[in-house]
Structures are given as structure tokens and as C-alpha cells.
Write a structure and sequence with these properties.
This protein is mainly alpha-helical. It has helices at residues 7-26, 33-39, 54-82, 87-95, 98-102, 109-113, 122-142, 149-169, 173-190.
Length: 193
């Protein structure tokens, strides 16, 4: 039985939620404490009652963003399984979807930030690396029996890279064509149905 969250816990979660959205939209450098607090409906002065530092907030935001996007993908996979469809097909089609192409704020934190991840402080690199590993593990679980960790790494890299390039091209015919080509290539190779 869960007790009702305290006001402090609810406020803390609201700050982390805003920071996670802002982080995916603007990158590490685009998350300002004052802006996050304002968007959360709070004053800048209350920040240090919840976090030791900006890096502490960003570390939690990375974790939150990863958990949120993983939950969406896991629901998609579960729905696919219930319909007798392949979990890998659900993951590939969901990740390389037009919705994900347009939805950077609610999408995969790895795709949103991977080019910036290696340049972060150790406090931010650790949770960022965890998100990459979690994505690879999700792909591994979605692979048909006998799928290897090497295959999961290749698929995860293809998913992230394709989404990043498609977003650069835009939510237009070119970006959508890139998603479609990668979906087709991945599914024909790893999940021929």
C-alpha cells in the first residue's frame, strides 16, 4: 500500500518532470534552474530545498526521461505480444514512428542527447550511460529467442542514429522516408514476418 505523496515529494516530481522535458528539448546546456522552477510554478529560491546542484537535477531528469520513454515502449511491446505480434516489430515501429520524429520532448532521451553525453561531467555521464545500456537491454529483450547482445547493440544504434538524422531532416517527406527505410531494413533482417 502506497501512502499519498507529501507536498514536498509532489513538488520535487513536478520539478523533475519539467526538467526532463526541457532536457530532451534543449539539451544539457539548455536547462536553466530559474526557467525550470518558473515552468514548475515555483520560485528560484526553492530549488536548493530539493537539489544539491543543477547536475543533481539533471541526473534525476535523465533517469525520469528514460523511465518515461521506456514505459511507453514497454506498453507498446506488451500490446503487440497480446495481439500475437513480435515485440521487436513493435519496438522498431514505435521508435521509428512519425510521432517519435515530432515528439522530442517526450521521446527517447538517448536520441535527444547522445551526441552531448560523452562531454558531460561524471555526475551526468553515469546516468546517461545507464540510459544507453537500458535501451540496449530493452532491444535485447524484444529480440526473438536466440538474439544476441551484438544484434541488440546494432539495432539500438540504428534506431538512435536514424531518429537523430530524421529529426535533422525534419518531419517532412525526407525525414519520414529515412524512418521508413530503416524500419524496413531492420525488420527484414531481424524480424522477417
Amino acid at each position: 500500500m502506497h501512502s499519498k505523496p507529501t507536498r514536498r515529494e509532489t513538488t520535487h516530481e513536478r520539478i523533475v518532470e519539467v526538467a526532463a522535458r526541457t532536457l530532451r528539448r534543449n539539451g544539457y546546456g539548455g536547462v536553466g534552474v530559474a526557467d525550470v522552477m518558473k515552468q514548475a510554478g515555483l520560485t528560484h529560491g526553492g530549488f536548493y530545498a530539493h537539489f544539491e546542484s543543477r547536475d543533481a537535477l539533471l541526473a534525476e531528469a535523465i533517469e525520469r526521461a528514460g523511465r518515461d520513454s521506456a514505459a511507453v515502449m514497454n506498453r507498446r511491446i506488451d500490446t503487440s505480444r497480446a495481439r500475437g505480434q513480435s515485440p521487436l516489430r513493435a519496438l522498431v515501429e514505435g521508435y521509428l514512428s512519425e510521432t517519435h520524429l515530432r515528439g522530442v520532448e517526450g521521446g527517447c532521451v538517448v536520441a535527444a542527447l547522445s551526441s552531448e553525453m560523452p562531454r558531460q561531467s561524471p555526475a551526468l555521464l553515469a546516468p546517461s550511460t545507464d540510459r544507453v545500456r537500458s535501451l540496449i537491454e530493452m532491444v535485447q529483450r524484444a529480440l526473438p529467442e536466440g538474439g544476441t547482445s551484438e544484434q541488440a547493440m546494432v539495432i539500438a544504434g540504428t534506431l538512435v542514429g536514424t531518429l537523430q538524422l530524421a529529426r535533422t531532416l525534419g518531419a517532412n517527406a525526407q525525414g519520414k522516408a529515412m524512418l521508413a527505410a530503416a524500419r524496413s531494413a531492420l525488420l527484414s533482417q531481424y524480424d522477417p514476418a
